[in-house]
Each structure stands twice: as structure tokens, then as C-alpha cells.
């Protein structure tokens, strides 16, 4: 394991983020991005139709 990786792992564990928390956080970000993309597409369609 590299020193940078060790620092990252120590930093995450020190912040109280476990693997489950990291997965949940990543999933929330992906879902949020998908929703924002869908809303942007919907908004574009609505504004182009008027």
C-alpha cells in the first residue's frame, strides 16, 4: 500500500466513514446526478416546446 493510500484510508476512518457509509454516499451522488440530468432534459424539452 502506498503512503498516499494509507493516508487516505486513515483519513476516512478518522472521519468515521466506514465502507458502508462510503458506498451509500457514492450511491446518493450517482442518484442525485441522474435526477439532475433527467430534470435538465425535461426542462429543455418543455422550454423548446413552447
Summarize the structure.
With 50 residues, this protein is an all-alpha fold. The protein has one domain (3-49). It has helices at residues 3-14, 19-49.
What does this structure look like?
With 50 residues, this protein is mostly helical. The chain has one domain (3-49). It contains two helices and no strands. The chain has helices at 3-14, 19-49. The model has no long low-confidence stretch (mean pLDDT 83).
- The secondary-structure class comes to mainly alpha
Low-confidence stretches: none
Listing every helix as H and every strand as E from the N terminus to the C terminus, the arrangement reads HH
Q: Sheet bearing the most strands, described?
A: none
Our Rg estimate from Cα atoms comes to 18 Å
Helix content: over 70%
Helix segment count?
Answer: 2
**Number of domains as seen in the coordinates:** 1
The amount of beta strand, in percent, is under 5%
The total count of strands amounts to 0
Shape call = elongated
Mean pLDDT: 83
Span between N and C termini?
57 Å
Question: What structural keywords apply?
Answer:
single chain; mainly alpha; elongated; Transposase, mutator type
Layout of strands and helices, then pairs:
Elements: H1 3-14, H2 19-49
